[in-house]
């Protein structure tokens, strides 16, 4: 494999190393908030952070950024770990911002003592007004010059739960006229009388992201703290908080920002994904239509294809929107190599081979995967009555119709050439049965002259007597709009595709009887399909993962 050129973060690291930064001090982290499941956007960040870990043989921590008890749950922690493992990455240490609550509190007290933090007892509305606007400086509030002693006493009271929510906050005392609005005395702590999934009711105050994040990086001695571009303006604050506690014997973390992943025809904020779940627009976080890692996995996406996708899109400093079809391309490429081929009919029409004996059955050889010479062959039962796909037959063939029509021949994949002789219809004129004859000498692979005969098309089929029934779920996009959450007057929920799920009964070749959760197949000419977790011992359920680009040509 050829070496790709370095992306800008690798270039920064190379430069740091050549300027004397010791490679054994490199340390990275992936810092999800456990307030939802991971989505394909997170995969980009994961591949970046863990990719750096692998490239530089450096540890990557998994840090749960669990500073908001109102939204965080153990279920999400578990799901995040499962998804990371499934993606194929190994974290060094499992850390929690909540493990640092005492240390963060102690630093906050230190900052009060230094005179760079104070308790503000105004309403959040009053605080917001005093912040000013980007073009107008803020003004100092009435509590900005509280004495250190009073601040210490109030902050301790906040910690002890003496005050109701919303009555006081701790703010950093920076600069109410800073050009960067985030530096206009940002909040460090708020009062929340909430149960936390790890610290239970120990804490009545919780640190804000900007304070907790950088200090957590420092505690873990993260050398390169990589985040998405929305945090560019936060960097100044990140550095200000570090300045308050930094000890020059230690590694000082630096923040770097890259462009987040945007994909068309979907939404990627956890808040919006949660709404889809709560409003029951989807069946759960792992619904196969969701852009979550667990949804993609259930749909049939492979970890390899997601990593490959992240590799192709690369790491850059400018935001753009990636076409969903690129993700599907990466998947198809993987499945084409690895998914065994089978036959299934999803919209059946009955075919009777009138010159094939009624009590006869044959077991024909079928190649499992032409892309994989080690995949071998299986036996496929053939008999007098078959199902074909309804759309593969037309009474009168238009020009260039390479399927079956009256008086014309096609090849049945792995089997014989048949010719349509006559049809039966019901009282409404719907075709109920096609009567065909077969060329007894034309068996695929038999080497006979007739087996080499060129006919216009090759169709998939199943033997009715041997077929197994399964539920097959066919998916379309969840949203009808390319960018559902970018409209001014409309909400992303206004663009839900009402026909994103269609459930049909499929008839499958009997080799699928032994298929298990995790197995993936190409249903020939139809697409790739994966076994769904809703399967049980009496019925298999399949998800259509992705269509084929092209039907096979033979
Ligand atoms: P969301 O808006 O979906 O809730 P978030 O950034 O709040 O996302 P976190 O759990 O904080 O979610 O994200 C963990 C890491 O994943 C962060 O470093 C974040 O920058 C990164 N990340 C989140 N979404 C994307 C994305 N679309 N593309 C790249 N990285 C992302
Ligand atoms: Mg976040
Ligand atoms: Mg978020």
UniProtKB/TrEMBL annotation:
Any coiled-coil regions, as ranges: none
Keyword Transmembrane part of the UniProt annotation: no
UniProt-listed GO biological process terms: glutaminyl-tRNA aminoacylation
Domain Glutamyl/glutaminyl-tRNA synthetase class Ib catalytic: 25-336
Catalytic activity, as annotated: tRNA(Gln) + L-glutamine + ATP = L-glutaminyl-tRNA(Gln) + AMP + diphosphate
GO cellular component: a single term: cytosol
Domain Glutamyl/glutaminyl-tRNA synthetase class Ib anti-codon binding positions: 339-439
Family in the record: Belongs to the class-I aminoacyl-tRNA synthetase family.
Species, as recorded: Flavobacterium crassostreae
Keywords: Aminoacyl-tRNA synthetase, ATP-binding, Cytoplasm, Ligase, Nucleotide-binding, Protein biosynthesis
Annotated EC: 6.1.1.18
Residues covered by the tRNA synthetases class I (E and Q) anti-codon binding domain: 458-532
Name of the featured protein: Glutamine--tRNA ligase
Transmembrane segments: none
One annotated GO molecular function: glutamine-tRNA ligase activity
């Amino acid at each position: 494999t050829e070496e790709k050129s370095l992306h800008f973060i690798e270039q920064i690291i190379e430069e740091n190393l050549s300027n004397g930064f010791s490679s054994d001090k490199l340390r990275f982290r992936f810092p999800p908030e456990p307030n939802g499941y991971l989505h394909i956007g997170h995969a980009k960040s994961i591949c970046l952070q863990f990719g750096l870990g692998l490239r530089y043989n450096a540890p990557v921590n998994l840090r749960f950024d669990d500073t908001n008890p109102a939204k965080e749950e153990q279920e999400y922690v578990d799901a995040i770990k499962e998804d990371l493992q499934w993606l194929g990455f190994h974290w060094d240490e499992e850390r929690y911002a909540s493990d640092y609550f005492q240390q963060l509190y102690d630093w906050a007290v230190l900052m009060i003592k230094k005179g760079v933090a104070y308790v503000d007892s105004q309403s959040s509305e009053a605080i917001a007004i005093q912040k000013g606007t980007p073009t107008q400086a803020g003004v100092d509030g009435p509590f900005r010059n509280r004495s250190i002693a009073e601040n210490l006493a109030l902050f301790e009271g906040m910690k002890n739960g003496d005050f109701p929510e919303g009555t006081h906050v701790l703010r950093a005392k920076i600069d109410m006229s800073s050009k960067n609005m985030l530096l206009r005395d940002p909040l460090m702590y708020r009062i929340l009388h909430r149960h936390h999934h790890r610290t239970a009711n120990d804490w009545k105050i919780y640190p804000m992201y900007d304070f907790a994040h950088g200090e957590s990086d420092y505690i873990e001695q993260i050398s390169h703290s990589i985040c998405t571009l929305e945090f560019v303006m936060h960097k100044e604050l990140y550095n200000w908080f570090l300045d308050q506690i930094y000890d020059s014997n230690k590694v000082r973390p630096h923040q770097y920002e890259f462009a987040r992943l945007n994909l068309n025809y979907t939404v990627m904020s956890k808040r919006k994904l949660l709404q889809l779940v709560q409003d029951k627009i989807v069946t759960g976080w792992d619904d196969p239509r969701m852009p979550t890692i667990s949804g993609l996995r259930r749909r049939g996406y492979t970890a390899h294809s997601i990593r490959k996708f992240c590799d192709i899109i690369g790491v850059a400093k400018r935001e753009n929107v990636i076409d969903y079809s690129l993700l599907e391309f990466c998947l198809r490429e993987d499945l084409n190599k690895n998914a065994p081929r089978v036959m299934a009919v999803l919209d059946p029409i009955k075919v009777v081979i009138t010159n094939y004996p009624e009590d006869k059955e044959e077991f024909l050889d079928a190649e499992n995967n032409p892309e994989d010479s080690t995949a071998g062959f299986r036996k496929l039962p053939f008999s007098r009555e078959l199902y074909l796909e309804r759309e593969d037959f037309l009474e009168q063939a238009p020009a260039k119709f390479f399927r079956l029509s009256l008086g014309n021949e096609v090849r049945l994949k792995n089997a014989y050439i048949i010719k349509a002789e006559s049809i039966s219809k019901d009282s409404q004129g719907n075709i109920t049965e096609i009567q065909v004859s077969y060329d007894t000498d034309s068996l695929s692979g038999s080497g006979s002259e007739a087996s080499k005969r060129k006919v216009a098309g090759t169709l998939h089929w199943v033997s009715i007597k041997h077929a197994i029934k399964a539920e097959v779920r066919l998916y379309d996009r969840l949203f009808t709009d390319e960018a559902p959450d970018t409209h001014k007057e409309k909400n992303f929920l206004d663009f839900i595709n009402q026909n994103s799920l269609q459930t049909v009964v499929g008839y499958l070749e009997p080799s699928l009887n032994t298929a298990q959760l995790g197995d993936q197949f190409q249903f020939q000419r139809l697409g790739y399909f994966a076994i769904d977790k809703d399967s049980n011992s009496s019925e298999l359920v399949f998800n259509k993962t992705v269509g084929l680009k092209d039907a096979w040509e033979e």
